[in-house]
Amino acid sequence: MSDLANTLIFESDTLAVRSIAVSEMENNVYLLTHRASGGQVLIDAADDFPAINTFAQQAAAADSPAAYDQAGAGVRALVTTHSHWDHIRALPEAVEAWDPVTYCGAPDAEAIAEQEGIEVEERLVGGERLTLAGIELEVIALRGHTPGSIALALRVPEGADAGERVLLFTGDSLFPGGVGKTNSPQDFEQLFADVSERIFGRFDDSTLVLPGHGDPTTLGKERPQLPKWKERGW
């Protein structure tokens, strides 16, 4: 974790996106830093809060040195992609240390409260366009892995004349090689439908998929496999 360059996913004059993996489950924790203000958004406080906290501080110092000690710098918002235990174990410590505004899919809020004692403040249904710490994110509901699973779409500049690219934080709903685990054929059908319509049906092949575990992929790489996923049922 001392070599932040290995965790860098995207950077521009206004924004940096980094990640680390924590716990025996190798959960990906994503951090978005607004360079002008130093404000940060954390996606999934999965486990090992001391490591996450150090990572966030190092990222703030590297990506927004002018704002590092200013009011408003640091983690201002914490988004949980879904309620499974391995994605929320550091949530209580993060809330206590940072006092961020917390977000999750509304149907998962009760499960998070039962497991970790955290009442998530902002409960999302999908379709919201949020501005968190100066960073704009679109919320996409992807039902099936859990009832309230969400993805977050971040639009970033590709270059002077190249338009935008989307970074898609998918939690455990979409991975290289398939959708996330489901517990019934009905849940699979729901998740496959949501991923097909709300992800593949809307975003182009250059879209970068950043899952809750493992390596990133692109929609272009995964799109040809959709019929196979549907046929196999997972």
Give structural attributes.
alpha/beta; 7-stranded mixed β-sheet; 6-stranded mixed β-sheet; globular
Order of helices and strands, N to C?
Answer: EEEEHEHEHEEEEEEEHEEHH
For the biggest sheet, the summary is: 7 strands, mixed
**What is the first-to-last residue Cα distance?**
34 Å
Could you report the average pLDDT, rounded to the nearest whole number?
Answer: 94
- Would you count the extended β strands for me? 15
What would you report as the Rg, rounded to the nearest angstrom?
Answer: 17 Å
Structural class: alpha/beta
DSSP helix fraction: 10-25%
- Number of helical runs? 6
Approximately how much beta-strand content do the residues carry?
A: 25-35%
Strand order of the largest sheet: 1-2-3-4-5-6-7
Give the uncertain stretches in residue-range form: 1-6
Describe what you observe in this structure:
- With 234 residues, the protein is α/β, with parallel strands linked by helices.
- 25% of the residues lie in helices and 33% in strands.
- The chain has six helices and 15 strands.
- It has helices spanning 49-63, 91-98, 109-116, 185-200, 219-222, 226-232, and strands at residues 8-11, 15-22, 27-34, 39-43, 74-80, 101-105, 122-124, 129-132, 135-141, 150-157, 164-171, 174-175, 178-179, 208-211, 217-218.
- Strand 8 (129-132) and strand 9 (135-141) form a beta hairpin.
- It is globular.
- The protein starts with 7 loop residues before the first strand and ends with a helix.
- 44% of the residues are buried.
